[in-house]
Amino acid sequence: MLALFMIGATDYPAAALAKQPPQMSAKIKALIRKEDALDDRCRAPGGDPNGRVCLERGRILLKLTHLGWCWDSEKMDPIEADNHWMRCSDAHKIP
Prior knowledge:
Largest sheet: 2 strands, antiparallel
Mean pLDDT: 76
Number of strands: 2
Shape: globular
Order of helices and strands: HHHEE
Helix content: 40-55%
Structural class: mainly alpha
Distance between the termini: 14 Å
Radius of gyration: 13 Å
């Protein structure tokens, strides 16, 4: 399973978006914000009884990956705290 699906319960987007490279478009930033909001709801106790929120979050993660953006780290053995939104490497590309 790709590392981009192993998103932690930390509130990463505000700080992570502030550190992102300038080539991150407004469209990408908007998708990341939406994914973050859905992630909060998906992980909340009883927050997604039908699984629809988590499914939509997964769709957005796939879309971000197809657009070339991944939630990952450059480190070989990263911990969740090392992750941030970055351009996907060849290892992340979905066929």
